[in-house]
Amino acid sequence: xxxxxxxxxxxxxxxxxxxxxxxxxxxxxxxxxxxxxxxxxxxxxxxxxxxxxxxxxxxxxxxxxxxx
Length: 68
Description:
The chain is mostly helical. It has one domain. It has 2 helices and no strands. Helix 1 crosses helix 2. The longest helix has 30 residues. 7% of the residues are buried. The mean pLDDT is 88. Keywords: Membrane, Transmembrane, Transmembrane helix.
């Protein structure tokens, strides 16, 4: 898959998951202040997106790209 295809396939899922994790951190008062919330959100988006890309790449290599 090209980077554009990976970006369009996984970025929206990563953003939704990061919003959920960030809201949970705000709710439990682990992240207080706009800077901490922003850093948490961006780090979650990057980590989850990279995880999705790595898992998708490994899945395609092990099971082939024809598997959905």
